[in-house]
Amino acid sequence: MVVTSGETGIGKAIVRELLYLGSKVVIWSREVEMLEKAEEELSIYLYSLRGAAEMEVGPCNIRGEHQVT
């Protein structure tokens, strides 16, 4: 599951729920600094779940087709 702007607000809440449900989640954002902070926080949460969920994080501007493909 790909979540854009998953580093804050509703996006982060969606990521947490997907991880809780055991999904593999990819988080993309243009805001690299905020993305790194969210990755740290969500990694701790992911570890606490001790389940099959997975998470990948990366910078991406979905407005740029070349970055999405």
Question: What does the model show?
Answer:
The protein is globular, with a radius of gyration of 12 Å. It has one domain (2-68). Helices cover 49% and strands 22% of the residues. By secondary structure, it is of the alpha/beta class. Strand 1 (2-4), helix 1 and strand 2 (24-29) form a beta-alpha-beta unit. Helix 1 (9-20) runs parallel beside helix 2. The model has no long low-confidence stretch (mean pLDDT 91).
Distance between the termini: 15 Å
Mean pLDDT: 91
Low-confidence stretches: none
Task: State the helical fraction.
Answer: 40-55%
* Number of β-strand runs: 3
Q: How large is the radius of gyration? A: 12 Å
Percentage of β-strand residues: 15-25%
Order of helices and strands: EHEHEH
Biggest sheet record? 3 strands, parallel
Strand arrangement, major sheet: 1-2-3
**Outline type:** globular
Class per helix and strand makeup: alpha/beta
Count helical runs: 3
Q: What is the number of independent domains?
A: 1
